[in-house]
Design a protein that fits this description.
Length: 346
């Protein structure tokens, strides 16, 4: 099968291309950013922007199916208009290009962020209540997928709603945690008994392909699947796993939550005034030590085999990568530019 992967040189996109090519499929990476490593002979790279429908249509030539991963997703440095243009406009362009080229099979990576704050772990039937531009525009992109499927009964769309994805080659939240602990700059706050649902990259890639290709989900129309690895860990267990793999003594002291919030109040004011993404804030403390991100993913786990890698084993693999090469890697800025430049390669 010839598969187009938008965002194909990113963390998750690269994992998809590696997995698919190992299964005998041919992949085309469509991305703003060039690949950091040399591609194998079953993977082709096309530099492009999902806001450019002409470039997308050109990339669709000879394609049998599409995995759409390209998105604006960072917490800082992206305007609401850019979220709208990339996440919703890009999804519209993907669906229009597929329709123009007779491509009928789509896998779209959405997010559990569209659920917002819920009183209990949300299932796929839970009404979304997004409370961020990222979650809101991903929810809007799902509606574009629904319209695409309704326009042609032959169109198939699998929508994956993953939690935080981590693993080797990721420079997001888990990387920051590992680096802080390694550098001795991590401070434990409160009890940290809050559940933090996670997804190891190899697990969600293998599960998505099993659903999408092997099990041909959905056979027609559109279907939605939450994805988290089970069992869930709490923040304290995640932190202790990192300390263990780094061969560091886990902390015996925990700063009271009320005191931590009081101490970072001036930092919050600075962030509000400057708009800068600072490493410490009340929002980050809340995310680490208070907020539950427990998601009900029983639907997907009833259909596929148990994941090959546990969360703790995934943390172990990521720490090994961090120690061997990740610590010294330069982090690429993958934020999309605020406006698509028609005169560029993209």
């Amino acid at each position: 099968m010839n598969i187009l992967v938008t965002g194909g040189t990113g963390f998750v996109g690269s994992a998809f291309c590696h997995f698919l090519s190992s299964q005998g499929h041919c992949c085309t990476c469509f991305d703003l950013h060039e690949p950091s490593n040399e591609l194998n002979n079953k993977v082709k790279f096309i530099q492009g922007d999902v806001r450019n429908i002409a470039a997308l249509s050109k990339a669709m030539a000879g394609i049998d199916a599409v995995i759409h991963l390209a998105a604006a997703h960072h917490d800082f440095g992206i305007s609401e208009q850019t979220f709208q243009d990339v996440n919703v406009g890009g999804m519209t362009n993907v669906c229009d290009s597929m329709q123009q080229n007779g491509v009928k099979k789509l896998c779209f990576f959405s997010t559990v962020a569209l659920y917002g704050k819920q009183d209990s772990p949300p299932t796929e039937a839970t009404a979304p209540q997004p409370n961020s531009p990222y979650g809101a525009t991903k929810f809007a992109a799902e509606k574009v997928c629904i319209q695409w499927c309704e326009a042609d009964q032959a169109n198939q769309c699998l929508v994956m709603r993953p939690t935080v994805i981590f693993g080797p080659n990721s420079f997001a939240n888990m990387y920051s945690l590992i680096r802080q602990i390694d550098n001795g700059k991590f401070l434990q706050v409160g009890k940290m008994a809050n559940i933090k649902s996670l997804a190891y990259v190899d697990n969600i890639v293998a599960t998505s392909i099993d659903l999408w290709i092997t099990k041909n989900q959905p056979e027609q129309g559109i279907d939605f699947f939450n994805y988290v690895d089970v069992p869930d860990l709490c923040s304290r267990q995640i932190v202790e796993s990192v300390y263990l793999e780094l061969n560091r003594k886990k902390p015996s002291f925990s700063l009271p939550l009320w005191l931590a919030r009081l101490l970072v109040f001036p930092v919050d004011l600075l962030i509000k005034i400057t708009g800068k993404n600072l490493p410490i804030s009340s929002a980050r403390i809340n995310k680490l030590a208070v907020a539950n991100t427990q998601i009900d993913a029983s639907k997907v786990h009833e259909l596929v085999d148990p994941p090959a890698t546990s969360v703790t084993d995934g943390i172990q693999e990521m720490v090994k990568w961090y120690q061997s090469e990740g610590k010294t890697c330069s982090v690429l800025n993958r934020r999309p530019p605020s406006k698509f430049q028609a005169s560029s390669n993209a």
